[in-house]
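Morning - CO-5-methoxybenzimidazolylcobamide inputs below, output right after.
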Amino acid sequence: MSDDQDEEIILKDLDDDELVEQMQDDLYDGMTAEVSEGTQILLDRGWDANAVLTDALVEGMRIVGIDFRDGILFVPEVLQCANAMKGGMSLLRPILAESENSSSLGTYVIGTVKGDIHDIGKNLVGMMLEGAGFEVIDLGINNPVENYLEAIDKHKPAILGMSALLTTTMPYMGVVIEEFDKRGILKELPVMVGGAPLNQEFADAINAHTYGRDAAMTAELAKVIVGKNR
Ligand code: B1M
């Protein structure tokens, strides 16, 4: 019997708390199949998708972040952790993105800014926005201002969102907003910003319309924005 099969039997035998802890360990070890399997088991046991996401996946990645910061984990390992997290997220996606609204709340363009390749948080925000009823256009990672401008022209979004995970890339959000302002776009288009190193103060300083602390909050605030703008 392979190790994988051994692991499969053990995961199913664990109680909820043990399983969540094991999934955090598996995420840390970059074990995509096991993290996906654990995700499915929790869903089958009736767990809410948001709880699986928060307790097992996001918490697992938080632990990874600490060891990454402290030089215990390095980029190749953390990439594997990211892939494992994405494995679990792919099972949650259809549930989180299932729209509670039959009619679209409008188009939401989102992308990670230039110089930054972190996309897990942005992807989560996208899923929650879809779940809230937005049509999401995801520009991916490493976006210069030109990409946002092109997407605005093409998709006429109700809201535009930017993500940054690095203190070195977050100032670029200000560059994008300044360019929107110069072109008269900022008056018409609410710009939301988010990402781990940001806070409300920073969002205010760069003239962003709204700061989204996390994915759920971003989706809630986005609904309020389109409600207000109608
Ligand atoms: Co990166 N990395 N990384 N990394 N990485 C961080 C961000 C870091 C904090 C790690 C650390 O030192 N503890 C640190 C930044 C330090 C700083 O800037 N002060 C860091 C570093 C230094 C780097 C490199 C420079 C490392 C190197 O090369 N030496 C490098 C930079 C690459 C680049 O972008 N140019 C790098 C690379 C990578 C990987 C490629 C290995 C990988 C990314 C893989 C991927 O995304 N596909 C990676 C990862 C995984 C992380 C950590 C460990 C996890 C990030 C994550 O996915 N979190 C991270 C440490 C950490 O944050 N704990 C770290 C889970 C996610 C659900 O949360 O992204 O915060 P988060 O999203 C949240 C909210 O922030 C918010 O909602 C989300 C869900 O609730 N949100 C938004 C996010 N975007 C939003 C947009 C919105 C609204 C809300 O729009 C409106």
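Note: Residues 58, 61-62, 64-65, 68-69, 75, 78-79, 82, 110, 115-122, 124-125, 161-163, 165-167, 192-197, 212, 214-215, 218 surround CO-5-methoxybenzimidazolylcobamide (CB under 6 Å).

O.
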